[in-house]
Amino acid sequence: MFQHLRRLGLVTAAFAAALTVIVGLAVPASAGYHFGFPGEDTQWRAVTYAGGPISSRSTPGEARDNHGDILHAWRGADNDGIWISLNNGPAYQLPATSGGPGYAQTHAAPVVIWTDDGFRGNFRIFHTGTDGHLYQHRVQLTTSYQLPATLPFATKVPNDARTSDDLSVAAAALPNNSYMLGWNSQTNNDIWTMYYDGGSSAFATPSVVPNATSYKAPALAAQVNDGNAPWNQVVLAFTGTDNNVYMARQRYGFGGWTNPQDVGWSRYAPSVTLSGTGYGAVAYVDLDNGLTTTRILRNGDSSEYYEENAYAWTGSAPLAVTNGSALYYVINGAGSSLSGVLWKFATDFGTLPTPPAPQW
Questions:
Q1: Taking the model in full, what pTM does it have?
Q2: Above 90 in pLDDT, residue 168?
Q3: Core-most of 10, 93, 228, 280, by most CB within 10 Å?
């Protein structure tokens, strides 16, 4: 009954606090409940490529470069192939490892980031293959900002980085063509991270995140030295073994993680994204399969939570993504009242006052 009232938008902030106790949403006591962000769209739109709406078994990954180009990568709707499309153009299937037969395959959603090398940069697509090993396809656009004529083979991520084959990899772009990866252990519930230094083209030794355990895939985001409001941090979000959603932070360049902070409750893996304004979002699927978002500040505090206002249901992890100061959602509507891969505008963080700087 309470879930239905929430979905109808009839829950007040006081009632939401009581609901936290009753159904275990684990919303911070100081957080306020909102039915939708300010200015949030009420309609979902199809994510498309040249052949029409994208269909997938899971939520696609996407990233933008500094030229405004957007790359989508998704798992096929009726196979385990990995498809990509640039700027909603034709779809192409990624090849397997060099010398391997056919095309790359995965049992989980691929993840896409873009890393800046000072020139055209690199789109990087990470996935877990079908054997649980972590793989990467590095796609650099041509000088005319088109996909290369020959798409890159998959390369295995070193240091024996492995997870369950049905769990996605987490990735966050960092300065100077660098990035961080995160994944669940293949043998227990630990979460591992590993840093890649783009300057030396070398991977650091993987390490376990303290006090972070999960059955589901983690999510990573980073915001470093962006304008006048630098986050200078990496944020990890994950659904714990108790199904509470947690967030931990790491100051960029210093290592070490803060103790995970409880920010919600979810059936599936969460998604995290940061904007240069000092605001970010952790998006997750709540008790009644609806999309809920906890807004976060650059000092690490959770601040308010927002239930998606168009009654969309989804049976897989969502994707929260920022483009400048704008926050967008991407979901896979398969198996729900909706169908296909869908997106909508959530809010513009640029309309909010600048939050205080983090205190380290």
A1: 0.89
A2: yes
A3: 280
